[in-house]
Amino acid sequence: MIPLFDTDTPLRPLRGEVDRAITRVLESGRFILGPEVQAFEAEFADFVEAEHAVGVGNGTDALMIALRAVGVESGDEVVVPSFTFYATAEAVLAIGATPVFCDIDARTMNVSADTVAAALTPNTKAVIAVHLFGLPAPIGDLRVLAAEHDFKIVEDAAQAAGAKLDGVPAGSLGDAATFSFFPSKNLGAFGDGGMITTNDAAVAETARLLRHHGTTNKQLHTLVGYNSRLDALQAALLRVLLPHLDSWNAHRRAAAARYESAGVGEFATAQAIPSGSEPVYHLYVVQLADPAAAAEVLAAAGIEARSYYRTPIHRQPAITGGREPVSLPATDAVAAQNLALPISPSITDEQVDAVVKALAASSASA
Prior knowledge:
With 366 residues, the chain is of the alpha/beta class. The chain folds into 2 domains: 9-243, Type I PLP-dependent aspartate aminotransferase-like (Major domain) (Aspartate Aminotransferase, domain 2), CATH 3.40.640.10; 244-365, Aspartate Aminotransferase, domain 1 (Alpha-Beta Complex). 39% of the residues lie in helices and 14% in strands. The chain has 13 helices and 13 strands. It has helices at 15-28, 34-47, 59-69, 87-94, 113-117, 139-149, 201-211, 232-241, 245-261, 291-300, 317-320, 329-337, 349-365, and strands at residues 52-56, 77-81, 98-102, 124-130, 152-156, 164-165, 168-169, 176-180, 194-198, 269-270, 277-278, 284-287, 338-341. The strands form 3 sheets. A 7-stranded mixed beta sheet has the order 1-9-8-5-4-2-3, with helices on both faces. Helix 4 (87-94) links the parallel strand 2 and strand 3. The two termini are 23 Å apart.
């Protein structure tokens, strides 16, 4: 079996360090915030070259808190892609704002300056730029738009820890950025966890207030906030993993290069990587004329593959409420044609070759 994800193999050599981190937290008696969270926040901020990092309960909370911290209020509009996980738009709705869906570039599967510009209105307060599947969105182009139209840029970097654009890490490209440490992510915790990063001290201060009931001392509450704090145990465990993330991501990039050299392009269209982008391949996603048929052939060969966001957000029942969805042709096409192939920090060249061989068989039988 070649799994889509392999979260176990990379952790095996670290079991001793993991056990020691758990013991350290248990013996400290500090389980909520405290020194482990503070240390991980500092280490993660350094990793993404941001001035501030604020640990929160999960990636969805990170989005809600970051949006409020950059000034999005009830009634404001936030431009978001539809080809992404539901939480990207859900967070906008959860704070009383309105998601306005934009299309994507079918080649990169990310938003572009043109697709975002088409969705802007005078009520646009922010744009969520999703670094989809670990590929940075074109933040430089979006910054030009932001200067013209006065909106904030929030990076949804849930799938992009360690990615870079023109040498600058995801997490320090926009006005704020959000990360998820869900176990299957490139930097995955042993449960839920999230982070907000920013170079704006005021945004960081507001985020810290919002994550802890709008207070700093449990006596005076200046905001209506949340109970969303990164667990000290998760922080300690993530501190063990973070030093290995660059090498894990490098292996993912090498695996993506192997897919290319093995000829995956003869049978499928891979996500296009613009110049200056250094993706981390949280997923290796291709487009096929018949992804369902290809997945069946791969499964028969013992290879796990999966389509993502088959029903994009703008077509979800909770969003449409029975109304006709907005027209997003590239989003609909990519949603119908995509298939994620196995990739991980432990995948071998032989496994990649086996996946491509199975794709070739699928193409021959089509």
